[in-house]
User: Which sequence fits this backbone?
C-alpha cells in the first residue's frame, strides 16, 4: 500500500515536471524576441581593442543580425552549440579559444541575450560588437 | 591504538584520493561534453557524489567551480556557480538519506536542469534589473528544456550502473 502511494506520488511529480516544461514553452512562445519581416533601419557599431569605433547605418530586410551585419562587416566564426560564434570582425580577431578576448554583442546598450545568428533584427535598434577581455 | 590510527589514516587517505579522482572526472567530463548544447553529466555525477561522500561532496563541488573559473575566466556565470551547485547538493543531501529510485533522481535532475536558468536569474537581476533578467531567462528557455531532457536521460541510463560500480569496487 505504502509502495503504491510512493509510486503514485513519483508519477505525479513526473507529470508536474512535464507540465512545467509546457508552461516554460508557453512563456518562451509568448515573450521571446521574434524577428520582424520587412525593411528595418538599424545601426551597427564595432568597438575595437583600442576603443576606436566604426558605425554603420543601414536598411535591411534581414530577420537576424548575422545576415544584416554581413552586409557591412566581414565576419568570421563558426557554428557552436550556442549558435554562430564570431571570432573575428573586419579581420580583427577576438577568439576566446586562443586568448582571453571575445566579441561581445550589445543591443541598445544592453548585453545581448542571443547569438548573432539568433538575434532578431528590430527597426530602430542599435547593435554593438565590442572587443572585450576577461 | 596505533593500528586503529593507521586504519583511520588509510580510510581518510583513500577517501581523499577518491574525491580527487572524482573532481578530475567531473571536470574532464564537463570539458568533454562542452561542445554539446546543455547535455552534461555534471548533475548526474554531483547526485552520485553526494550519495557517496555526503557532506564531503561539497569539497568536490567547490573544487569543480574553482577549476571552471580557472579555465573559462570569471564572468557573471561564475557568481551563479558559487550557489547553483550548492542548491543541487542541498537537494541531493536532503533526499539521499533514504534509498530512492532512479526515476526519482531523474526527476530531480530534470527539474534542476529546467530551473537552471531561473536559478541564475538573481545575479542578472542584481546586475541589470528585472527586465534584463527576465529577457535573459526567456532567451535561454529552449536550452533549459534541453538541459532537463538531457539530465533525465543521462540519469535514467547511467545513475544505477555507476552507483553499482562504485559500491562494488570502491565503497
Assistant:
Amino acid at each position: 500500500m505504502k509502495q503504491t502511494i510512493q509510486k503514485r506520488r513519483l508519477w505525479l511529480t513526473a507529470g508536474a515536471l512535464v507540465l512545467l516544461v509546457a508552461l516554460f514553452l508557453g512563456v518562451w512562445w509568448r515573450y521571446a524576441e521574434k524577428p520582424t519581416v520587412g525593411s528595418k533601419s538599424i545601426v551597427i557599431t564595432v568597438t575595437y581593442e583600442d576603443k576606436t569605433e566604426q558605425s554603420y547605418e543601414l536598411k535591411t530586410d534581414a530577420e537576424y543580425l548575422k545576415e544584416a551585419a554581413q552586409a557591412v562587416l566581414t565576419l568570421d566564426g563558426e557554428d557552436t552549440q550556442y549558435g554562430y560564434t564570431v571570432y573575428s570582425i573586419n579581420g580583427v580577431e577576438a577568439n576566446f579559444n586562443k586568448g582571453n578576448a571575445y566579441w561581445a554583442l550589445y543591443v541598445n546598450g544592453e548585453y545581448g541575450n542571443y547569438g548573432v545568428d539568433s538575434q532578431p533584427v528590430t527597426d530602430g535598434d542599435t547593435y554593438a560588437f565590442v572587443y572585450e577581455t576577461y | 591504538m596505533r593500528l586503529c590510527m593507521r586504519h583511520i589514516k588509510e580510510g581518510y587517505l583513500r577517501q581523499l584520493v577518491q574525491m580527487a579522482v572524482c573532481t578530475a572526472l567531473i571536470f574532464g567530463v564537463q570539458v568533454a561534453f562542452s561542445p554539446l548544447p546543455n547535455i552534461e553529466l555534471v548533475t548526474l555525477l554531483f547526485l552520485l557524489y553526494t550519495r557517496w561522500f555526503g557532506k564531503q561532496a561539497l569539497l568536490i563541488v567547490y573544487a569543480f567551480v574553482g577549476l571552471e573559473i580557472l579555465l573559462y575566466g570569471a564572468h557573471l556565470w561564475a557568481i551563479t556557480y558559487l550557489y547553483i551547485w550548492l542548491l543541487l547538493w542541498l537537494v541531493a543531501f536532503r533526499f539521499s538519506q533514504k534509498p530512492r529510485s532512479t526515476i526519482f533522481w531523474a526527476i530531480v535532475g530534470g527539474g534542476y536542469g529546467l530551473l537552471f536558468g531561473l536559478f541564475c536569474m538573481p545575479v542578472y537581476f542584481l546586475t541589470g534589473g528585472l527586465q534584463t533578467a527576465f529577457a535573459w531567462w526567456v532567451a535561454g528557455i529552449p536550452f533549459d528544456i534541453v538541459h532537463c531532457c538531457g539530465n533525465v536521460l543521462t540519469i535514467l541510463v547511467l545513475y544505477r550502473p555507476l552507483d553499482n560500480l562504485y559500491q562494488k569496487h570502491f565503497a
